[in-house]
């Protein structure tokens, strides 16, 4: 570890803390449906959309209707992308003349992008035409992100409102978030990326005669426009197979920093928005503190492990530090940091190959996802996931002191706790059962590239990434098979919507409740004690379930590594 | 609920189409237009041409250098090496025997060239993309003696050329762009 590496990590967090309030305040304006300066330009677009679709943005919805519209919209988007991918061969914007995708790959990919996962069973450059990248995939990068933030808004309203049924209008939330936040931010970001060396063209392959006289084909395309929203919307689906490790996606150390900041900035901001919405910004800072503590703990482990490197290679005479799967321009600190950021958020973009990390260095990304990605988390999804843990935390605290639990002025009763447990249980249930199944079946065992415990880690990582809607991979796994495309597709859908529906039910129930004024008997949810309790609940409830799986995979791998055993 | 369902169909379908046009067509196409106008070189891949106008590479993307006359690029897992249509890392885990075998052969190659110290980590490992355009300073300097010998140049001059090409950023690691360095080497005469 170097002081420059720590300067990068701490500087990164400092920049985000400085951005938290301004971004949170902007999000709060959208939460309230207030007018922003951007309405001057984009207001007519917003109103035009409502008019054509027959939407009254002022008509608020109860949680069931909000959920129904959200689900139907996502299903329509899913069908649209499935069609675009299947028909790729006959559609324009296909300079490489690529064929349409197989049914199972199109199924997997359409679900993957709809659920904000962006798991990629394919290599972008050899599978996707320019039109598919833009029309099939980029739209999801915006709308799955906007859906996530809209859902967070709905839950915030549940906590903030009293004795009403409505939790907002889904269409108004999604449209405003897209038009007044994601799109303008992406335009700025795209231009920065192009200026830094990310291609943006409709051309295809360029043939190169290298200095040594060999021929090389380089693929260009509309990369920058997809890259910008891939990060900001915590999507993570790369234009190229190697994702943000590819020099065209992420050409410099500065673009790397901006990409990492883009992944986290909305997640940081939303904690402030939550605090503002419930009338006490300290509530937001308390949540953010717990998240940042968990985040920095993860970074420390991964950075230390990667900087120390792989003893198996050192014995052969390689200098220390694990550079397998890493790019020189980023080096170890910026690669380790990126891996923890992308899995703490539900981004899943990678600037280095997690499969080739040291055993424990690669375990942290895996563990981050297993904590339901509530350490900052995906845009919207992180905070609503974290609030489910907060509900459990006040419940546990209430049991300990023998009082009715309350959180931000709302009584937390058996309905909320049951629904929160239901939502949280989806993750271990799906991940562990599908991993176990794939570890037993021939079709599943055909997947891993690596042998020994690392092969098991590849399977565990895949299902963790899918259910948690992350999308990063231990990419040695051959996933483009009917078995994995099918199961991972189901896992992604369940991981997203089986959590969202109970969460919206909680939002609806909370909105209908009276406000309980804070009293001397209330458990304070702003101080250090509360932050510590949150960290503990996330680790114990979220993490402990996975300990046996981690012992079979990364921990066994680590023990083999330090003994010098190979497979 | 049945009535709710049908009334939700229209916004779901219409909004899908409207957003597809805005985000899937208008946004990327507008960005392509503006990007091409403002940054034509970068938007088209930062291509490098020789005197005759032939494209010889990109400043951003790495290419294979295997000859002893040049500074060699890192091992690559992209296709058969530096395949621009198949970017990839090796994805070999820390305890993979295949990784050990590959690294052994890379180390032997460097030992045969007279590198006696520990081999710089990037020179014995495959990058994430398989298209890494750079080398660390140590990895470039470890090759300076060989390049100087083959080209009949003084080693000090080759080492000076390397340090002259050192780029850095406080957000990443110092590195040398291999294509730029090798072009400078060719331009130096021998």
TrEMBL record, chain A:
Membrane disposition: Multi-pass membrane protein
PANTHER family in UniProt: POTASSIUM-TRANSPORTING ATPASE A CHAIN (PTHR30607), POTASSIUM-TRANSPORTING ATPASE POTASSIUM-BINDING SUBUNIT (PTHR30607:SF2)
Alphabetical keyword list: Cell membrane, Ion transport, Membrane, Potassium, Potassium transport, Transmembrane, Transmembrane helix, Transport
Pfam families (UniProt xref): KdpA
Keyword Membrane belongs to the record: yes
HAMAP family membership: KdpA
Transmembrane residue ranges: 6-31, 66-85, 134-156, 177-198, 253-273, 285-304, 374-399, 419-439, 486-510, 530-553
Highest classification ranks of the organism: Bacteria, Pseudomonadati, Pseudomonadota, Alphaproteobacteria, Sphingomonadales
Cellular component annotations (GO), alphabetically ordered: plasma membrane
Gene name per UniProt: kdpA
Main subcellular location: membrane
Protein name from the UniProt record: Potassium-transporting ATPase potassium-binding subunit
Family the UniProt entry places it in: Belongs to the KdpA family.
Locations listed in the record: Cell membrane
GO molecular function: P-type potassium transmembrane transporter activity; potassium ion binding
Subunit structure: The system is composed of three essential subunits: KdpA, KdpB and KdpC.
Protein task: Part of the high-affinity ATP-driven potassium transport (or Kdp) system, which catalyzes the hydrolysis of ATP coupled with the electrogenic transport of potassium into the cytoplasm. This subunit binds the extracellular potassium ions and delivers the ions to the membrane domain of KdpB through an intramembrane tunnel.
TrEMBL record, chain B:
Ranges that cross the membrane: 12-30
Cellular component aspect of the GO annotation: plasma membrane
Molecular function (Gene Ontology), one example: ATP binding
Main localization (coarse): membrane
Pfam families per UniProt: KdpC (PF02669)
ATP-binding is among the record's keywords: yes
Stored InterPro entries: KdpC
Origin superkingdom: Bacteria
UniProt topology in membrane: Single-pass membrane protein
Keywords, ordered alphabetically: ATP-binding, Cell membrane, Ion transport, Membrane, Nucleotide-binding, Potassium, Potassium transport, Transmembrane, Transmembrane helix, Transport
The keyword Glycosyltransferase appears for this protein: no
Subcellular location, record wording: Cell membrane
Function noted in UniProt: Part of the high-affinity ATP-driven potassium transport (or Kdp) system, which catalyzes the hydrolysis of ATP coupled with the electrogenic transport of potassium into the cytoplasm. This subunit acts as a catalytic chaperone that increases the ATP-binding affinity of the ATP-hydrolyzing subunit KdpB by the formation of a transient KdpB/KdpC/ATP ternary complex.
Complexes and interactors: The system is composed of three essential subunits: KdpA, KdpB and KdpC.
Family: Belongs to the KdpC family.
Protein name: Potassium-transporting ATPase KdpC subunit
Phylogenetic classification of the source organism: Bacteria, Pseudomonadati, Pseudomonadota, Alphaproteobacteria, Sphingomonadales
């Amino acid at each position: 570890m170097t002081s420059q590496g720590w300067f990068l990590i701490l500087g990164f967090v400092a920049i985000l803390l400085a951005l938290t309030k301004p971004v949170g305040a902007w999000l709060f304006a959208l939460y309230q449906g207030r007018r922003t300066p951007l309405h001057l330009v984009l207001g007519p677009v917003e109103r035009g959309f409502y008019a054509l679709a027959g939407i009254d943005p002022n008509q608020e919805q109860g949680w069931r209707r909000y959920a129904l519209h959200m689900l139907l919209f996502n299903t329509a988007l899913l069908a649209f992308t499935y069609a675009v991918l299947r028909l790729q061969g006959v559609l324009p914007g296909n300079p490489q003349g690529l064929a349409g995708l197989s049914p199972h790959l199109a199924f997997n990919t359409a679900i993957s992008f709809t659920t904000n996962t962006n798991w990629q069973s394919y290599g972008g450059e050899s599978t996707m035409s320019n039109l598919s990248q833009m029309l099939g995939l980029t739209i999801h990068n915006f709308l799955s992100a906007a859906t996530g933030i809209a859902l967070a808004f709905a839950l915030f309203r549940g906590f903030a409102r009293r004795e009403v049924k409505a939790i907002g209008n889904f269409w108004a939330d999604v449209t405003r978030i897209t038009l007044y936040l994601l799109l303008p931010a992406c335009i700025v970001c795209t231009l920065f990326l192009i200026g830094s060396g990310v291609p943006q063209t409709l051309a295809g392959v360029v043939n190169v005669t290298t200095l040594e006289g060999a021929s090389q084909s380089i693929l260009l395309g509309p990369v920058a426009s997809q890259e910008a929203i891939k990060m900001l919307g915590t999507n993570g689906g790369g234009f190229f197979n190697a994702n943000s490790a590819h020099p065209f996606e992420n050409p410099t150390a500065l673009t790397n920093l901006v990409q990492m900041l883009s992944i986290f900035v909305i997640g940081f901001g939303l904690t402030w928005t939550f605090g503002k919405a419930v009338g006490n910004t300290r509530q937001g800072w308390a949540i953010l503190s717990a998240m940042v503590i968990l985040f920095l703990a993860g970074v420390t482990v991964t950075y230390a492990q990667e900087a120390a490197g792989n003893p198996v290679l050192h014995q052969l005479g390689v200098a220390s530090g694990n550079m397998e799967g890493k790019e020189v321009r980023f080096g170890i600190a910026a690669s380790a940091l990126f891996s923890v950021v992308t899995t703490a958020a539900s981004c899943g973009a990678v600037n280095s190959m997690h499969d080739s990390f040291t055993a424990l260095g690669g375990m942290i990304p895996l563990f981050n996802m297993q904590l339901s990605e509530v350490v900052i988390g995906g845009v919207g999804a992180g905070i609503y996931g974290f609030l489910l843990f907060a509900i459990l935390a006040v419940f546990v605290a209430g049991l300990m002191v023998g009082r009715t639990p309350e959180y931000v002025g709302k009584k937390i009763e058996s309905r909320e706790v049951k629904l929160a447990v239901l939502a949280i249980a989806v993750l271990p249930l799906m991940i562990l059962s599908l991993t176990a199944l794939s570890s037993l079946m021939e079709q599943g065992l055909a997947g891993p590239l690596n042998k020994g415990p690392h092969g098991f880690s590849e399977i565990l990582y895949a299902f963790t990434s899918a259910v948690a809607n992350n999308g990063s991979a231990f990419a040695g796994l051959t996933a483009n098979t009917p078995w994995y495309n099918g199961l991972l597709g189901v896992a992604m859908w369940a991981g997203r919507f089986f959590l969202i529906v109970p969460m919206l039910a909680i939002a609806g129930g909370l909105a209908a409740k009276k406000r309980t004024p804070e009293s001397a008997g209330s458990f304070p949810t702003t101080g250090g004690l509360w932050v510590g309790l949150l960290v503990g609940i996330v680790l114990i409830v979220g993490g402990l379930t996975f300990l046996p799986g981690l012992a079979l995979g990364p921990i066994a791998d680590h023990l083999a590594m330090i003994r010098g055993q190979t497979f | 609920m049945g009535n709710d369902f049908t009334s939700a169909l229209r916004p779901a379908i219409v909004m899908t189409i409207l957003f597809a046009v805005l985000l899937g067509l208008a946004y990327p196409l507008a960005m392509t237009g503006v990007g091409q106008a403002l940054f034509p070189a970068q938007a088209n891949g930062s291509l490098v041409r020789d005197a005759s106008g032939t494209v010889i590479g990109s400043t951003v993307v790495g290419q294979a250098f295997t000859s002893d006359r040049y500074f060699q690029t890192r091992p690559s897992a992209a296709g058969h090496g530096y395949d621009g249509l198949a970017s990839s890392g090796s994805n070999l885990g820390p305890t993979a025997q295949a990784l050990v075998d590959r690294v052994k052969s890379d180390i032997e190659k460097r030992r045969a060239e007279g590198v006696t110290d520990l081999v710089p980590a990037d020179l014995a490992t495959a990058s994430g993309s398989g298209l890494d355009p750079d080398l660390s300073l140590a990895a470039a300097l470890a090759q300076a003696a060989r390049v100087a010998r083959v080209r009949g140049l003084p080693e000090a001059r080759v080492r000076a050329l390397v340090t002259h090409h050192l780029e850095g950023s406080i957000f990443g690691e110092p590195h040398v762009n291999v294509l730029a360095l090798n072009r400078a080497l060719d331009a130096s005469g021998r």
